[in-house]
């Protein structure tokens, strides 16, 4: 019997407690504690291999945590009885690789899951899709196929697709890392707009300007632990930990 999750939007959006994750003998997350408040933008930074993607993937159960608790809007999603699909449908995810369906138009990429998972009618799905395409500045490209769009446009479509599921929060895993530098700004602008509308966001990124301007909190990870966290402006200007200093001196 699946429990019907009692969503509590007055609780923290995401609350992670003593999260451990092993791949075989390799302990990749070594006791992570942190939370994301409703409407907060939390940027996660750190060197490659530090466990950022694994952390994000645990939050929507794309990875099974080995131990610890993750509570999303009052629902313990690490509870084995919880309906993972329901949890996931409230969390939008955007990856470095856009993962659009290449054989479907932009519009169909945005409507298919709405109809199949959200059970919306075609007309409703199209309306929601068009609203979100306009939001990412691609209202005029609904009939295009992904291959005919730039990487930046494809990523904006991927964001619009995630938004079309009406998620309570959005997770971004290095959304601009695969893009040519001149295409990064448009994607960050879309994310900045989302943040200013109050969307709860967890963003793995190397874009320190974005973290400084948009982030409410910066979390620095290294070796599977959170080394340091705080106000992005403070952490970036005056990192306390040696490992944070070393990392920032390379990326800033
Ligand atoms: P980051 O996103 O910070 O670069 P990851 O979370 O991708 O780090 O990876 C952290 C560690 O976990 C790395 O050592 C990586 O090799 C390992 N890892 C990630 N995914 C898997 C997997 N599916 N199977 C085995 N090891 C993995
Ligand atoms: Mg990663």
Automatic annotation (TrEMBL):
* Gene3D superfamilies attached to this UniProt entry: P-loop containing nucleotide triphosphate hydrolases
Keyword Membrane found: yes
- A Pfam family this protein belongs to? ABC_tran
| ABC transporter domain boundaries | 14-248
SUPFAM superfamilies given for it? P-loop containing nucleoside triphosphate hydrolases
Q: Name one GO molecular function term.
A: ATP binding
User: What Enzyme Commission number(s) appear in the record?
Assistant: 7.4.2.1
Localization of this protein? Cell membrane
Q: What SMART domains does this protein map onto?
A: AAA
Q: Which UniProt keywords apply?
A: Amino-acid transport, ATP-binding, Cell membrane, Membrane, Nucleotide-binding, Transport
Query: What is the catalytic activity of this protein?
Result: a polar amino acid(out) + ATP + H2O = a polar amino acid(in) + ADP + phosphate + H(+)
Topological relation to the membrane, as annotated: Peripheral membrane protein
Q: Which InterPro entries match?
A: AAA+_ATPase (IPR003593), ABC_ATPase_HisP-typ (IPR030679), ABC_transporter-like_ATP-bd (IPR003439), ABC_transporter-like_CS (IPR017871), MetN_ABC_transporter-like (IPR050086), P-loop_NTPase (IPR027417)
Could you state one GO cellular component term attached to this entry?
A: plasma membrane
Superkingdom of the organism of origin: Bacteria
What's the family? Belongs to the ABC transporter superfamily.
What protein name applies here? ABC-type polar-amino-acid transporter
């Amino acid at each position: 019997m699946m429990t019907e999750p009692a969503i509590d939007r007055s609780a923290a959006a995401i609350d992670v407690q003593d999260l451990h994750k092993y791949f075989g003998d390799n302990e990749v997350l070594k006791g992570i504690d942190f939370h994301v408040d409703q409407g907060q933008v939390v940027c996660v930074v750190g060197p490659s291999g530090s466990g950022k993607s694994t952390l994000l993937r645990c939050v929507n159960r794309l990875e099974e945590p080995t131990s610890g608790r993750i509570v999303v809007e009052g629902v313990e999603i690490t509870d084995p009885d919880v309906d993972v699909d329901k949890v996931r449908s409230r969390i939008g995810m955007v990856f470095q690789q856009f993962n659009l369906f290449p054989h479907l138009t932009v519009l169909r990429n945005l409507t298919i899951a709405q109809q199949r998972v959200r059970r919306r009618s075609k007309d409703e799905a199209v309306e929601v899709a068009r609203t979100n395409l306009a939001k990412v500045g691609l209202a005029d490209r609904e009939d295009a196929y992904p291959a005919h769009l730039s990487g930046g446009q494809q990523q904006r479509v991927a964001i619009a697709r995630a938004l079309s599921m009406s998620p309570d929060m959005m997770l971004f895993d290095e959304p601009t890392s695969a893009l040519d530098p001149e295409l990064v700004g448009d994607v960050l602008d879309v994310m900045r707009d989302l943040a200013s509308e109050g969307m709860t966001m967890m963003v793995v990124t190397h874009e320190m300007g974005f973290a400084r301007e948009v982030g409410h909190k910066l979390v620095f990870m290294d070796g599977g632990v959170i080394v340091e966290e705080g106000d992005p402006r403070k952490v970036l200007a005056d990192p306390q930990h040696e490992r944070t200093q070393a990392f920032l001196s390379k990326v800033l």
